[in-house]
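> forwarded from #structure-qc
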C-alpha cells in the first residue's frame, strides 16, 4: 500500500495509476479536508468484489470452509480439464 497526498496524486496521476496496475496494489490518496480515497486496478477491484460476493452467503462460506478443510486433509482428486 502506498499513501500519497491529493496534490501529489493529481500531479502524478499517470504514475499513480501505472503503479497500482503494475504492482497489483492500491494507493490511498489522503485529503486535508475530506475523507481519504483509494485507487486500485480494475483487476484488483473485480477480485475483491468476487470475494465479497462469495462470502456474503452463509451457504457459500460453509462450502468454501469444507473445501479448504478437505484440501488440508489431502482429500483432493486431480483431473484433466475438458475442452467443453
Amino acid at each position: 500500500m502506498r499513501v500519497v497526498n491529493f496534490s501529489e496524486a493529481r500531479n502524478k496521476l499517470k504514475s499513480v495509476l501505472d503503479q497500482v496496475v503494475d504492482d497489483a496494489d492500491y494507493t490511498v490518496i489522503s485529503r486535508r479536508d475530506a475523507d481519504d480515497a483509494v485507487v486500485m486496478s480494475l483487476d484488483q477491484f473485480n477480485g475483491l468484489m468476487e470475494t465479497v460476493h462469495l462470502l456474503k452467503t452463509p451457504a457459500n462460506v460453509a462450502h468454501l470452509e469444507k473445501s479448504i478443510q478437505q484440501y488440508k486433509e489431502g482429500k483432493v482428486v486431480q483431473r484433466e480439464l475438458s475442452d467443453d
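QC bot note: The radius of gyration is 19 Å. The chain has a mean pLDDT of 95.
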